[in-house]
Amino acid sequence: MTQTLNLTINGTTQTIALDDPRATLLDVLRERLGLTGTKKGCDRGQCGACTVLIDGRRMNACLALALSHDGAAVTTIEGLAEGDRLHPVQDAFLRHDGFQCGYCTPGQIMSAVALIAEAEAGLDPERVREGMSGNLCRCAAYAGITEAVLDATRTMTREDAA
Amino acid sequence: MNLFDYTRADTLGAAVGAEGALLAGGTNLLDLMKIGVATPSRLVDVTRLPLSQIEDHGGGLRIGAMVRNADLARHPQVLARFPAVAEALLSGASAQLRNAATTGGNVMQSTRCSYFMDPLSPCNRREPGTGCSAIGGETRNHAILGWTSGCIATHPSDLCVALAAFDAVVEIAGPAGTREVPMATFHPLPDANGVPPALAAGEVITHIRLPDPGGMARHARYVKLRERTSFAFAIVSAAAGIAVQDNRIVAARLALGGVAARPWRSTGAEAALLGQPPIETNFARAAELALQGAAPSGNNAAKIVLARRIAVRALTLAAAGTPDRMPALPASVFEGDDHG
Q1: Domains of chain A and any CATH numbers
Q2: Exposed (0-12), middle (13-18) or buried (19+): which is A108, by Cβ within 10 Å?
């Protein structure tokens, strides 16, 4: 039986017909919508490579049954930049070498965007590391990632104040 | 993953008595379905049920079963009255998972016993009467209390340990009406052939109720020993609360995690603390009582010693008082150390 769901992906509302209820949000993004920036790592909620924002909250798209999120607004890594202008978190990851192979990076960046919005870690490196613990990096670029998140926090706090 | 029918229950009436597995945050159920441990033919999505409120209840709180873990941990009244509940929540999983996982789902999560999670290993908990593959195996995460030859698995929740310590009650709606069960006895202990279900067919957890914590509101902690300081299940953990007047303990709460198929509340340890000064020798005696009857279920005798120490640490920290701000590393045993 085909079931349909509406998702607003990066600001555009789409109606998606699913003939298999097993599809996760990750499957829909990558295989139906061609948004392959969101990565499949462990596919079990342990690595964070599939992190997206669902109604503004960071979640693992691999453990989000697509049908259960009918009506949701989803932001993926493809939705962060404005044209050629990178999001401050993307820019900070580049400047601080917050990656090596890059596979975990979209998830790291989406998680960092949410971490900064949650406004609980601030500029405390220990709180940033704890808040990013749902995103694994097998290249162990953690030192650069932490610096990038702290730097982006400073940039975005200045932008908010301006 | 097996194929299933998906339906959504938008009212409690539609969820109660529904046939199939209840889907909330999906962080445990979808994982178990992916590895073939859970094979429901029908999923009933309960995420839209109107059970996402946290309400005042006397001096306590009534928490809807669909309140997300992250929202519960951040709620000002949870932080003010039940800081150990918030600390337990924040010591578990990752920010992504806490944004999805629900209160009711946390209570209903399955054991992380690696033999339970391997569909090829016989398991009384998965299929009663088939045996227990964990016995004689790797048992670091297994029970030291309340286990039988039928099952030595532990309940993995951090939240439930803090809820059990602070007298939480589980409110359940079923086809035959409503009922209530204390959190401390909600999860059945194993018998010789398996583990009875906590809920009858068609029942739904609707709320968790916490009574007024009194003087323990600012003297409550959760401490958790794990293999890494974040995003790991407890090897052993403890939730503790203490209220002191004139240097005498007037109320005490203690529950252990990672040691049994349920959070292990010790009213005997609590009673022994009453009237005593809040000093380490008394905490050590209480911890001894909490571990009474403990026995290794395999190569895990160290957990008995570790649980005793974690209980003493939790009581000591609770007596010292809840910090004004949540620690950077919630429930960490390294708090106050120089990490050396």
Answers
A1: 3-79 (3.10.20.30), 88-161 (1.10.150.120)
A2: buried
